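Record 1 of the preview.
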Amino acid sequence: MLLYLAAIQEPEDREKFRVLYTNYRGLMFHVARRILGNDQDAEDAVHNAFEKIIEQIEKISHPDSPKTKAFVVTIVEHKAIDLYRQKARRPAQELWEEAEGVQVDYHGDDGLARCILALPARYREWILLKYDHGYETAELAALLGLSLDAAYKLDQRAKKKLEALCREEGLL
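->
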């Protein structure tokens, strides 16, 4: 809150903002979280909303009024929607797709086990959960928070990568 207060010049505006921050920060987070679906993005939206409120602080006459509450909720909704649209335009890249994860030393003579352990972590986990532990694709999609299409694609990529590693090892 100190960061925001430093941006406000007038003492009475600082007091108004302090009341707004104390009274509405939780509500703002809840509204943003409902729109964006995760805490980090909701925090960003609330921060952006507070910056916008600081720009408009002189227009707020009574920080405890229903009109002010509606104003604050409207601003955070708009900031959350802006952030949602911004993220939709640049889809998140799954950087951990090729992450190696925990390295496992295997000194046995089973080539397939060596190939599975050489897979990137995400593929290795998928192969083990699906083919060793017996999970269905739909179950794994729900477990890993993936859409069913993304789960099928992950299965396809994991098998393709495993096949390539098996070919390199001379197993196929």
